Structures are given as C-alpha cells and as structure tokens.
Amino acid sequence: MHQWKKILLLPLCLLAAVGCSQEKPTAAMIADLKSTNERDRIVAVRLLQHRQGDAAQVVPALVSALTDKENDVRWSAAIGLGYFGAKAKEAIPALQTAVKDKDARVREAAGVALSRIDPENFSPPTAKARAQAK
Fold first, then answer.
1. Does the residue 12 lie in any domain?
2. Which of 21, 41, 84, 124, CA to CA, is 20 to 30 A from 73?
3. Tens of pLDDT, residues 31-70
4. Of 56, 27, 60, whose CA–CA distance to 44 is shortest?
5. What CATH number does residue 80 fall under?
6. DSSP code of residue 24
7. Helix and strand numbers, DSSP H then E, in the chain
8. What is the dihedral of CA 53, 54, 60, 66, to 10 degrees?
9. Which residues contact 83 (CB under 8 A, 6 or more apart)?
10. What SS3 class is residue 108?
11. Domain containing 49: what range?
C-alpha cells in the first residue's frame, strides 16, 4: 500500500473505531477495562468520562483503572474522574494514592482531579509541584 493511502486510511479507521465505541453500553465499556488488550482499555477509559449519567457505575470502574499496569490507562482514569466532580467523592482515597504514582502525568492528573472533586480541600497542582513531578 502506498504511504499516502496509509496516511488517509489510519484516521478513518480511528474515527470508525471511536464512533462504534461510543455506541457501546456503559456496562460493555466497563467490561473493556478488564481486557487484556491495552488499546481496548484506553479507549474504554477515555470514553467512560463522557457517561456522566452513569456515574454510579463509571466512578468505581475508573477508580479500579487507577491501578492498571499501563500508564496511559491510569492517566486517563485520573483525568476522567476529575470530569465527574463531586459525583466522584468516593475516588478521593484512590486519587490520593495516585498522587504518588511513578508516572508524573498520573500524579498531576490525580491532583487536578482532586481539586475538581473537592475544591475546598484540594488545590490544583502548582507550577512548582508540576516541575517537581517531572
């Protein structure tokens, strides 16, 4: 296949895959978080943050994803929890642990999520904290 065809085909395939995933029920996406395929877990964790109406199911699943072996899954889970705001209060202990993650992106995302979930008790990470995380 010519290089230019690959360049055109890849974005179309990605759009098709993401579009199909958005039609999946929340329970199916949560099940994908247990997949052995890293890509399936990443797609699921990134789409679940948009399921605000299913917070009771999604928040515990994202909390569980904070312990995934892959950095991108943990990072996306922390970001996703922040989108739920006060609906994700049960995630606070797991996010406090994630603030000490080995990956700097996970640590920063966990700090931001905490500040969105409980702004009275958690401040967003400062520039100094972000610099130290790197």
1. no
2. 124
3. 999 999 999 999 999 999 999 999 999 999 999 999 999 9
4. 27
5. 1.25.10.10
6. S
7. 8, 0
8. -70
9. 49, 50, 52, 116
10. helix
11. 24-133
